[in-house]
Amino acid sequence: MPAPKDFDKKKLWKERLSKAKIGEKNPNFGKTGKKHPWFGKHHSQATKDKLNKALKGKKKPFTQEHRDNLTKA
């Protein structure tokens, strides 16, 4: 179901969806440690190289300028 275009309805819609996923109903609830699907696994060197190549040249999310603007706000 797409989000409503009306701002007030959208806010209510987001709150309702958020409440629906709280606690044990959350798909990731309890998936920590040994229960987590990636527990004990590691990326191969080839995969690490692929990720490294994909992320090269991308800007970091919080530049110094951005942090300065956040402190001013």
Automatic annotation (TrEMBL):
Residues 31-50 form the Nuclease associated modular domain. InterPro entries: NUMOD3. Residues 62-73 have a biased composition (Basic and acidic residues). Residues 19-73 are annotated as: Disordered. Residues 32-45 have a biased composition (Basic residues). It holds the Pfam family NUMOD3. One of its GO terms (molecular function) is DNA binding. This is Nuclease associated modular domain-containing protein.
